[in-house]
Amino acid sequence: MTKERQTWMGLLARAPEDRLKALWAETGMTPAFSWLRAPEVGGVMLRGRTGGTGAAFNLGEMTVTRCALRLTDCGSVGHAYVQGRDKSKAEIAALADAILQSANAAVLQDKLLTPLQAEEVSRRTSRAGKAAATKVDFFTLVRGEDA
User: Fold this and answer.
1) How many Å apart are CA 118 and CA 79, to the nearest integer?
2) What does the pLDDT look like over 90-108, one tens digit per residue?
3) Would residue 8 count as lying in a domain?
4) Structural domain of residue 39, as residue ranges?
5) Closest Cα to residue 95, out of 83, 110, 112?
6) In a domain, 116, yes or no
7) Residue 54, CA distances (Å) to 58, 62, 70, 97, 120 in order
């Protein structure tokens, strides 16, 4: 369950705001909930490593919005951290997280996560294709005097 939850939370956080809102509206779900932590905007420090394995360094800051809520009917708790200042995106992501832990998970999986996953794969494939088109292969010629 933990791995699945990490996957859907990452997908919700990476989803384009307008597309997430449109798909959420199409689900027609309006569950009653109470805030555990209302959406709030803050910043997080991004850290990197040289070569992926070197010493850690502070890369810079990123604005995030976070929230937590509890569904009234089943008590499921949903959390969200999303990039940027969009409080409604954070709310939708937290609602989706809570619902995906409830009995209505299959419905939301089909109507929200499956289309988002397909669109993300399409975006990544398109980006990889564009990158491959600009790839330069370098080669070295052996010259007679270097032998």
Assistant:
1) 23
2) 999 999 999 999 988 999 9
3) yes
4) 2-110
5) 112
6) no
7) 13, 22, 41, 34, 30
